[in-house]
Amino acid sequence: xxxxxxxxxxxxxxxxxxxxxxxxxxxxxxxxxxxxxxxxxxxxxxxxxxxxxxxxxxxxxxxxxxxxxxxxxxxxxxxxxxxxxxxxxxxxxxxxxxxxxxxxxxxxxxxxxxxxxxxxxxxxxxxxxxxxxxxxxxxxxxxxxxxxxxxxxxxxxxxxxxxxxxxxxxxxxxxxxxxxxxxxxxxxxxxxxxxxxxxxxxxxxxxxxxxxxxxxxxxxxxxxxxxxxxxxxxxxxxxxxxxxxxxxxxxxxxxxxxxxxxxxxxxxxxxxxxxxxxxxxxxxxxxxxxxxxxxxxxxxxxxxxxxxxxxxxxxxxxxxxxxxxxxxxxxxxxxxxxxxxxxxxxxxxxxxxxxxxxxxxxxxxxxxxxxxxxxxxxxxxxxxxxxxxxxxxxxxxxxxxxxxxxxxxxxxxxxxxxxxxxxxxxxxxxxxxxxxxxxxxxxxxxxxxxxxxxxxxxxxxxxxx
Length: 465
Hints:
The chain is of the alpha+beta class.
């Protein structure tokens, strides 16, 4: 399959964003490949918590561990992708890229595309099986926020994945892969990997790679860059029900335009793009990836016509020697329960219910690592900044959450909310759902590791359906 859809010709490559997270609109990828020409479709499925969810699924079923939504999506789109010469890059592999690739190859064969689809697999990010070896070798995987070493909680680790750069993606594309499936690559690499492949940028073309990183950051959250979840004049964003997802039109010098298919809803202008640029932003001068550091303060945005914003001027510099590791671990148990109190005096009743519940928990000797009360409709979003409750609120939901290392303690908490219905303040509802569910607390442990320990283990394989 060629890199078709649009003539690359050393001039313009169009990379369409089709998913911003696992659970995004299922029809967005098909709209991206059918509503106009594109060269690449990138699909971003992974977040930190997603890896632990996928690992849990794999423990229960060794064939699982990847974003299952990706496979029927590919079954639906592969005939069009093959016909139009579009290439797909996705991190849907989660903790089992091999299993994901096999499933895609199977649906390709079922669609009569045997011999016509090549699937590339990038592995090496999963460090679960290597953790004892790495710790024994002196890599403490110290928590970047607390300074604690990983060893004391090693038996509670659920997943450990290093953020890979684009090298595996570029190698798979160079090997002819039509679909590239990765595990935990950085989200931005799903966009700048294809650009490096197409334009032949080398490892020290830092300005161009930094521009690709910026393009990837705009693309990675799907419709959040095209008017979704925007604060600026959000009521005027047209036709959110048919919102168009972003497309990067990139050039060899690193400049690019962010746009969307004509006739789709949403809006692309400098304010919407700026909002996405500052999303999850730390130091704007140091947006770090495994391939380069991008300086976001050098970005120039200019309108380029309706729903088109030109991006240029991005500067970059060499990446750090370390790679980031995302580790998820079990950190006890939690439960969340709610009741709704109605007018009159809704907040007063909800506060009384909280006081009564806490007194009962104390009387029963139930102690928790944390107990939190929120009043939805008054202060759940803004906390103390919400100020005093407005008078005559028609209703308020009181929401309790507890956390403890002792599951039995949390289980006993779940039995104490329902009694408030008959032995607490009046005008209560919202209790028909039964007792709250006890859930594991999955906590996040960010760490660093020298890239030399990881990169030799990266493996790329290209298989044909």
